[in-house]
Structure formats: C-alpha cells, structure tokens
Structure prediction request, 659 residues.
Amino acid sequence: PAHGTAPPRVGFWERLLGFFVSARLVPFVIAGLVVAFGVYVAPFDWALEGVPRAPIPVDAIPDVGENQQIVFTEWAGRSPRDVEDQITYPLTTALLGMPGVRTVRSSSMFGFSMVFVIFEDDVEFYWSRARVLEKLASLPPGTLPEGVAPTLGPDATALGQIYWYTLEGHDPEGRVVGGWDLDELRAIQDWTVRFALQGVPGVAEVASIGGFVREYQVDVDPEAMRAHGVTLTEIAAAVRESNLDTGARTIEINGVEYVVRSRGFVRTLEDLELAVVTSREGTPIRVRDVATVTMGPALRAGALDDEGAPAVGGVVVARHRADPLATIRAVEERIRQLAPGLPRRVLDDGTVSQVTIVPFYDRTELIHETIDTLSTALGQQMLIAIVVVLVMLGSLRSSLLIASVMPIGVLAAFGAMKLLGVDANVMALGGIAIAIGNMVDAAIVLVENVSRHLDASASERNRAAVVRRAAAEVAPAVLTSVLSTIIAFLPVFALTSTELKMFAPLALTNVFAMLGALLVALFVVPAAAASVLRGGAERLGIARVLGLPPPAAARVMQVLNWAVAVAVAVALGLAWLPLGRGASAFANVIFVFALLALVLGSFRLLERVYPHVLRRVLAHKAAFLAIPLAVVVFGLTAWLGFDRTFGWLPASMRASVPL
Prediction:
C-alpha cells in the first residue's frame, strides 16, 4: 500500500480459502481420503485386484413396507370361526399392549391364524422381535388351546424375496430330461436344498413351494369301527403312540450296565398297520382291521407352475438389512457347491438325469440395471460438462477441473450413505443422478471467476493471492445458491409412513451429493486452480514455446480446445447412442453434434441478447413484474378456485367476472 494508507482488509472467506490455497496439500489429502473411502463403499461392481471393499447394500427398489412382525399359529382342522375366537382374538388383545405398537391386524383361515403386529417406524426391528417373543412366552395358561404354539415369522420384510428357483432333471449336456416325480423333488427340496441354502449368510428363510409332501394316510372304515367298537380318537392315539422310541431304564449284566429301550419309529406301512388300537377278549384290534394305511400326498392349497407344467422349487428370503446383491451371490455360490452332490439316476433309455437347481427369478439383473443407470449418467454428464465448459470458457484445464467435481461429489455421497445407513436403490441413486446436473454449478462459477481474475492479472507473480481473492469474491453467493437448492428438499422429510420411506432416500442422497460437491468446489477447486490454471500467463508461455505472437498462440489454443471438444462429443455420441443401437454410430454422433450445436448456440444467443433484454426489463419494471404476478394468480385460481382465491373481494365484483 502507498505511504499513509491502511492495508486492505482481509475478510473471513479470503482468510479461510487462503489457508487452503496456501496449504494445498491439506485439501488434496482430504479429497484423496474421501475418494478412497468412496471407492471402498461404492455400490458399483468394481473388481479391484487387491483392494478391500465393503459396498453399500444395494437393492432395486426401496423397502416401503411396514415395520411389522408376523405371528403364525396353526390349529389343524379347525374352522375360521374357531380359529378367530380361540387363537386370533386372544393373541391380538395380548399383543396390543406392547410398547411401540401402532396397530395389530389379523387374519383367520381354515386351520391357521396370522397376526400382523405393526410397530412405529422408529422402533428397531430386532428389538420388536424380542418384545413379541417375550410376550408370547409370558401368555397366561389357558390363553390358547392345548397343544397350540404360535411362532414368529422370519426376520425379513415384504421385499425380501430375492431369488426363486425350481428343481429339474437335466442330462450332462444341460437338457431337461425329467425322470423325477413331484414328491421326490419336493423331498429333495425339503431335506437337502432348503437346509443347504438356509445357512447362507443373509438368508432369513428358504420356503418350499410346489410338488407334494409325502405322508402316511390312514383312511378309516366306519363299518369296521362300529363292528369292533373302536372310536376315531382311539385310532388316532394308536397311530400317534406307535411312532416313537421309549426308554426302560437300565439292567446290569456281568458288571456292565446296558440301556434298555424300545424301538418304535415307523419305517414301513406295515408298521402302522400292525399298531394295536385296543383288545377284545384277548384279541388285539389292529389299525389294519379298521382302516387302510397308504402313502400319499399331503393336502395343499397352492402349486408352482413353470411354463404350464407343475414344478417344485423354493423362495430365498433375505434377512432384514442384509445386502440383497451380496446375499444372491452367496446363494449362487452355495448352489454351485451343492450341484454335484444332488441325486441322479439312470432312466429307462440310458440317459443320466441329475436334479439341477434352475433359477427363474433373480433380482441381480434389476439391481445391476439400477446401478448402471447412475454410472452411465455420471459418465455422460462428465462428457457434457467438458464440452460445454470448453466451448463457453475456452479452457481445457478449466473444463477438466470442473468435471472432476462430479465423481468426487458422488463418492462423497457414497461415503455419507455408508455412514448413515442409507441403502443404494433406484430412489437413492436417482437422487444422485438428479444432483449431477447441479453439482458443477458452484465449480463453474468459481473456476470462471478465477480464470477471469488470472487473465486480468497476468503480470502478477503471486497467483495464489489472485486465486484467493477471486474465490472469496463468489464464495458467499455459491454457498447461498447451493444451500437454497438443498433447502428445497427439506419438505420431503416432513412426509410420513410409506411416502417418507419412498422419497427420503432420494432427498438424502441429493443433499449428500450437493454438499459434497459444494465442499469440493469451495476448498479443493481453489487449491487445484492455483496449481493448474495460468490465465493470461498460459497463453504467453505457449507463445514463447511455439515462437508465435500472443494472438497466434491464442488461436492455437482455441483450435486445440475445439479439437478436444469434438473428440469428447464423438465419445459422448458413441456412449449415449441417442438414436438407439439400430442406428449407425455415424448417425448417433451427427445427432449429438446437432443437439450440442442447438444448445450451445442457444447459450451464445442468450449471452448476446441478455444485456439488451435486461436493459428493457429494468426500464419497464412494473410492466414486466406484472407477468410473474399474473402467472401466480392464474396458478392459485386453477389450484384453489376463483372464489377461494378472490374471496376477499365483494360478492358483486366476483359475480361480474366471467368465469
């Protein structure tokens, strides 16, 4: 400063940003840590050799189901009325008094009852399960009929069905050859496949569906029962008591103690037929005297159909808060391990048929399409940003610097999602995709202002001071602009129930991405700009290297920028394919060129027209302010109606309006 004058006052933003511009290693290290953590938790299917990863749980759609627990109670052979009166109603009234319960819903069917205990959304899932189990264990004696035991459903949600499969007989070449009955496939599913998949991490339940469950069936003969004086209760008791082993303490022989037991488990139909029901004058009345014992299918209320043919299969249900994509991969790996050990047989024609697990619903493809949508949008947005900035600012370094904000901001959003427990789904990733277009706004303003100041101060040697002043000049406006966008999403968090679960992930991830991009633009971009941007000094340096006058060097730089813009536009056309894969690559590229020319031409036209339009608007403020006012009034009239909008007017004036 001149003698006698005070040095210029340094404001808060200039001091704050000046620290990061001077100590450039600090923002670069922080950005590196954010990028590393974002890569560590990113939901993309990146196969990085030697790099440990813990991706965010990924699913196709958000879980909008109720926070509920299901209590299932079976009471075979009873009517819905009996089930309702003696099971459903007592359980419902007992479960209503639990803490955190919003409501209890129930359903009574023939032979079973289902009670849905719905908790408040802020109640922890496994805490609610513990409370339900505790309540069921403390029911007073006599609350439920004797022998009835309610069970708690799996620890999964309504969207937990992630994998369906069928069991089929295939030859060694993979062709369907059959050779297995439905009851055989159902037995393999129930006793081999189901237990193997049940132990996979993340799996809450594997439910069997289709086929026939084998069971011993005793068909009584009423006439024979009457002749022998036997009741149905006695036959049922004889069948029940014949299928068990019993102990008879021990005996000692030659100093050795032997355990005595009777072996009574049923192994054949004859074992049941020979079971004694009662005796008449020393003559035993056996089951076969009053009934016919056969092996048959259990009664079923549903079936599994595969392209018109009956099939046997299973449904894999993921555990609450488990990663569906990781769970599916673990299930597929277990199936590969299980496949060689499944039963096989030789058919009559000599063909070897082996039971094979064939998936027919796999959420993996839908999840990958959801993730690919974001990755594709991010890549295309980066290319578009490079082209636009190259054309509008005329600086390759500036365009690359601005485009780098998007991936760093997205990775920062992934890190926040991991820390706050926000799963990646179509709504959450949609919030990031929506934010991508706004993420570069702050960086564009900062870089453009820094470039302008560097051009105007080409002779100043302290480039860091120029960058600091330029960034501090627009930092408050950038902060206000981004925060205004973020505040617009706050009403989403005032929603409740299903609406909140649906749209909250979108709002959260949008806020995460915008905040990440804002912090990068404010603290990393100025430091990077001080390192890579040269402004007018860059053109002077190129002129000296090429031995050209400054105007010629500027034209060389302009040609280089246009060449890079054309190359990026070609890459965008090949990656985007706006006309579809049926059109040629040349046609897609030409379409992208035409679209960019239209958009960028409109920007250039707006640049030239805007000052003249602004002067006219400022000269006639009242006339132009009437336009938005008329739009607001028209919108209120369409929304609320004329009478409610203009209810403050006298009735005579409202009646005179021709509406």
